[in-house]
Amino acid sequence: MTEPTTRRSSSGQVNFHQLYIFQMVASHLSFSRAAEALAITQPAVSIQVQELEKFLGITLFHRRPRGLRITDAGEAVLAYSQQIFTLSSRLLQTVQEMEGLQSGHLVLGASTTPGEYVLPLAVGRFRQIYPGIQVELIIGNTRTIVQRILDRDMDLGMVGDHVDDSSNELEMVDFQDDEIVLVAAPSHPAANSGRLTAQQVADLGLLAREEGSATRESAERHFRELGVVPNIAIELGSNQAVKQAASAGGGVGVISRLGITAELRAGMLTVLDVADWDCRRPLTLIQPRDRYLSPSQRAFREFLMAERTSLISPYPNLSSNLSSADSTLTS
User: Fold this and answer.
1) Stretch 79-84: mean pLDDT, rounded?
2) Which of 50, 64, 216, 279 is the most exposed, having the fewest neighbouring CB atoms within 10 Å of its CB?
3) Domain 178-280+326-330 belongs to what topology?
4) 90-107, pLDDT tens digit by residue?
């Protein structure tokens, strides 16, 4: 049986030391293992948890012969505790970063196209300027990245479209336009058929990314604007898979022009000439609307905006080279 706790008064503040000890016990579900991790005695751990229970007026753990089980009230306290100590870590990190950005940590999220073709270059250049800042880049489809930004798992994100569903919760800045093209192997019949209609391309079967991908959603939206129902023949989980399937002659690939520079130059893919096909979407920088940016986060964002032209076109005369390659391969 768990002894009832007394109801606390409305005055006073939570003791963060007690709260941290409670969090350690909750993570181990053991007073003794928490004591070992904290390098203090088990009685000291028990007393601090009991004092916190007394202050809050609730029971945090069911104490049973087989071990501890956290109560529903304890789960709620644990959720707040984790947020509190996450903010505490960010506070210390921000103070350290204020000393000339000598240290820091960035967690970036990106949908596949900017995650593969834009941000790695940006991160590499950024760390040449700020080598003390550690950067973690997580790549997923747009839907996943948006949710993790909203959950505060990531500091900044870049996705391949506007995010209408969460526009009230996110601050969005257009970074640069991106073009979605339709590609095939030079040996594919579509590559040697002259100008095609969108319907003819759709009938051939499309190689597209998975649902939740902004590349796919942008292309499907444009097909619908042209009065065509796209026929997805093969659904693939990455840009690389789309390129490989297309270069093997498996169909017409739907992909960002940013991702096919090498394949065009090598003659592995050709961009199809499709009537009225001009599919563009913005690469969008996102962050929670109410999120305070630390010095390193702010520095990275400012760097991105200042360097966006060179990051999208890192090679001189890239657009003219691509146009030339397209005309050569499709002729």
Assistant:
1) 92
2) 64
3) D-Maltodextrin-Binding Protein; domain 2 (3.40.190)
4) 777 767 665 667 777 889
